[in-house]
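PROTOCOL LOG
Step 1. Enter all chains and additional molecules of the complex.
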Amino acid sequence: MTPRSPVRVVGPAFARRLRFWIQDLSTELRHHVAHGRFESAIGVTVGAVWLAIAPLFLLCSAVDFFDGGSDATALFLSGIAIGLVGLLILWLSEFPSSLPLKRLFAALVCGALAALVAVTIAHFTTGVAPTIDASLAEGAATITGTNSSTIEPDQLSLGMLLFRAFGQWLASAALIVVLVRISPHLGVGGLDADGGVSTRSARRLAPKSGSTMARLLLLYTLLTFLLLISYFLAGMPFIDSVVHCLTTVSSGGFSSRSGSIGAFNSGAIEWVAIVGMLIAGTSLPLIFRALRRGDLNRFLRSIEFRTYVGLVVSGVFAALAWSDNWPTTDDVRETIFAVSSAISTTGFVASDLTSISYGTEAVLLVLMVIGGMSASVAGGFTVMRLMVVSSYIGRELRRSIHPAAVEKIHLGRSSIGEVALARIIGELFLSAALILPLALVLSADGLNFEAAFSFAISALSNVGFAFGLNGPEEHLRMLGAFGHLAAVSLMLVGRISVTPLLVTLGGLGEPMQREIRRWRLTRHERAVR
Amino acid sequence: MRRVSVTPVRVAGAGLLAAALAMIFSTAVAVVDGGEGVTGLTVSALLTALVGLTLFFGSQISPTADSALAFASVAWSWLAVSVAGALPFLLTGVIPWGQFDSALFESISGFTCSGSTILSNFDAVPQGILFYRSMTQWLGGMGLVVLAVAVLPALGIGGLDLIASEAPGPTADRLTLRVRDTARQLWLLYGVMTGIVAMVLLTLGMSIFDAATHAFTTVSTGGFSPHAESIAYFDSFPIELVLMVGMLFSGASFSIHWHALRQGVGAYRRVSEVRWYLSLIFGAFGILVWVNLEELGWLQNLRESLFYAVSLGSNTGFGNSDFVLWMPAAHLVILVLMLVGGMSGSTAGGMKVLRLQVVFKYSFRELRRARHPNSVIPIRLGRTTIEEQIAAKVVGFVMLYLGLIVVGGVVLSGLGVDPVTAFSGSASALGNVGPALGEAGPTSNFLVFPRAGRIVLMAMMALGRLELFPAMLMLVASLRGLDQSRQRRDREGSQ
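Step 2. Run joint prediction.
Step 3. Record the structure below.
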């Protein structure tokens, strides 16, 4: 006879499992406290992000203090708190010896969420955004580079203005780090969803990925300084130039004025912004190579760049052709501005977008969806993925006539593998599937159909402005808590991309899935018996 | 007489003869109605029959047959029928000759089972013409079933192949040994269902004319009604219930109905597409009820939400109120229903539930592959595995479908239509639904689109009914045919 266990286990199987799981967890915790650090990539990432962002709090707090602003104390205290917690987490964690793919995804997502939490805390503690959901929306807009806000920039203190602008700049710098250091390891989904085509060019810049990253960051910084000087020379005040150069090069779009770039009412400033936005939408490795060798023909040789420019030119021509009146020089400039702002997903506004023609509105929406080039800091689906999808459709059309044909998809000299193709298409459909319920929430929260749909597209592509309301930037202000949460989700999905987010969420649900599967199997066995 | 061996010409001739038959029936209705429009209808019938007979007997089926040629034949016949179908509107004076494109729009909308109309004053339209409109939809619906059942398996892709891989046991293309018999069985089912719907509507108090026309457009999921207010004209819940059952039936695969008749209701249960189809419609119903909670009273909410969930889920397009006045969130649900449409192998339009299933499975497989990069995961629908090549074709189709909606929406917006009307009109036309959102709602008409916009919509309706790829095959096969005949002529000339 089998001896009975001394411990009497009561309750259903699921409760038993839960108890065992809690016991395991507490044993593991005790072990780690006794023997040292946790092996956790998530812990290292979160700690590093918080530790890196804390100096920004302190810097902006100092600026605000000397400017006589009211946010200095809140920024200082929250910066100290975030820095200390980051340091503690970093001290408790160490990088694991082996890192499975799903953990890498989770670390990436948790890093972005950690940045979101930090920026949300800044907005909430300073009282800039009155509610948690509004702070969360502001935080998401900052870290994803979306020009969407519940706040009038004119009412912000200098410290918070700089904090938000630097936040967007740092987020895009972090994107470059991810592009060079993490994406190649992911191999699937997310930022590397074009099968490594964009990161392949980034990886070839230098023998070591560290040097590549340093070079790209240097280029990014140089471009920022160039824009700062250009804005200043074009007649923008210095502080405004600082804010705008940071948010132009990062394709973020936050402005120091309520009317965005249009508030300066200067053609020269708008031209500087146009050039800056188009650069932000261009592949950084491509710019680096062209500048290093002094070979500007590299731009012309890149099929993706040619398509990008072609899209801008066609967008401008279509918008001008469909406008109600014969365009003046100002109209041409403002159309180029709007098209550049949409395709680079910056979101700056220079003119009254509520009075544009329906055709222009549709063109801008399509350009928002497409977004900038791959390996750039712009959001959207990216030009390269659009080209891949177009080639895929063409191939399937040809295959309907010649079913046995074996055809590979080429972009310039690179060929795209079937796995990469499937990833890109999966990403496209998952984003489309996600946008529908979230647009439903936006419309249920008070936006009209046009406003809800255009804002959902705009938020997913990290642009900011949208249509259907009295102003292009009114949408986030019109929304309640649920709407804000939907907007946050869209912005995050747009920046991190849907695959890492869902893979991480799937990881969280894995124990539950395991239990459900086990429960179903037990039920089936019982039924068979 | 020497016959030309061109299959598309012969099939187009047959199509024209069928259209002429519809015109003759409509003439009879016009005679009973008091004679208004009889001359126009008779002349149209004679002209169409004459051209049809000439084409039919002046040609024969080509000795060589391939899938591209089969689709080209069907596509050309539909185009010929659409052009001839515009004649009754012009010859009866319902639409003036100066607006030939409007007559063509009405005809294409009829034969493609879209249900979008440019008619505004229905009281001034003779009953013969209203009957004829409904018959065009009935013919269009029947044509699609034939196309799906008799032609698709020969092509080796799309609709029926997917049904075949989905349905366990005897598959749709094996209803009977011969394809022609299969088509006949499905025609019979289609006709019987039309008869049943008409009879039930008659017993519920509709006139014979209304019962027949509504039965035609229900079973074909067309959506034309002889009344400007559509089904709201009757204001009767029993009538709406019957139409809902009819629409739900017609939005499902006819071959599955055939199996269900032989094997019992279990045939439905075995097909996952049926579950998805019903879940989609009833899920949309639930969301619509939730969204409209504060806008409508309880009973009215349930009635209108259910009616529109079924009407748009089956891509019929009947209306019992003006959904344009609903909350914006409801419009989003309506748009999704328009996009998806009915089941594969049904008379409904849209991109079809089966394709949605494949795309979903395809996308979620990529998520699983992201976690486990070396895993090999097949795409399963129910108990059947879909081949990679078919999955790729379906994915390509869906992307092309969505891309065309975007292109259509941008072009219509450029022509001065507001984006909501433009994009929903584009989705409605490509999905052969009928009403759109914005200014082109169920109580409005498509005159809100400019003339050039209506031409774009016509092209989209035709593309949607021909399921995109066949439209391209039509072009390729026709060009190839022209090339071959030129080569033959050259050879004969040199001899």
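Step 4. Note key features.
The two ends of chain B are 23 Å apart (CA to CA).
Chain B has 20 helices and two strands.
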